[in-house]
Amino acid sequence: MITLINMSLENKINESIKDSMKSRDTLRLESLRAVKAGILLEKTKTGSKDQVDEAVILKILQKMVKQRNESAKIFSEQKREELANIEISQAKIISEFL
Q1: Are 29 and 20 in contact (CB under 8 A)?
Q2: At CB < 8 A and 24+ separation, what contacts does 29-34 make?
Q3: Cα–Cα distance between 26 and 73 in angstroms, integer?
Q4: pLDDT digits (tens, 9 = 90+) for 48-76
Q5: What pTM value is reported for the model?
Q6: Which residues contact 21 (CB under 8 A, 6 or more apart)?
Q7: What residues contact 56, with CB distance under 8 A and at least 6 apart?
Q8: What is the number of other CB atoms lying within 10 angstroms of the CB of residue 61?
Q9: Cα–Cα distance for residue pair 34/5, rounded to 1 Å
Q10: What is the pLDDT of residue 3?
Q11: Cα dist. 42→21, 32, 37, 82 in Å?
Q12: What's the CA gap between 74 and 8, in Å, rounded?
């Protein structure tokens, strides 16, 4: 695995996507692709084509974790534990970058 010490958060996410593809970890890959999509949406929204500020990326990640935790809670209330577990797992994966 490539060292992720001095890389930007966006580059760390991209490297993790590559690692997930190589290891065929579909849950992790799906979660990280959602993060990347959120970052790309922010880039097009601000009009800045190069880099998004790290603080903005952290806000995106926090929002995604919150969304997944809320979804997991709703799924649990509706007795849909398999879907709740997926949402919780995705929240944990995204939280790794916070």
Answers
A1: yes
A2: 30/90, 31/89, 31/90, 31/93, 31/94, 32/93, 34/64, 34/90, 34/94
A3: 23
A4: 666 778 888 999 999 999 999 999 999 99
A5: 0.84
A6: 29
A7: 42
A8: 20
A9: 23
A10: 45
A11: 24, 15, 9, 31
A12: 34
Catalogue the long-range contacts made by 35-42 (C-beta closer than 8 Å, 24 or more residues apart). 35/60, 35/61, 35/64, 35/94, 35/97, 38/63, 38/64, 39/10, 39/13
Q: Is 48 left (phi over 0), alpha (psi -120 to 50) or beta?
A: beta
Angle between helical axes of 9-23 and 26-46 (0-180°, round to 10): 150
Q: Counting every residue, how long is the chain?
A: 98
List Cβ neighbours of 33 (8 Å cut-off, separation of 6 or more).
Answer: 17
List Cβ neighbours of 95 (8 Å cut-off, separation of 6 or more): 61, 65
- Residues 51 and 70 sit within 8 Å (Cβ to Cβ): no
CB 31 within 8 A of CB 90: yes
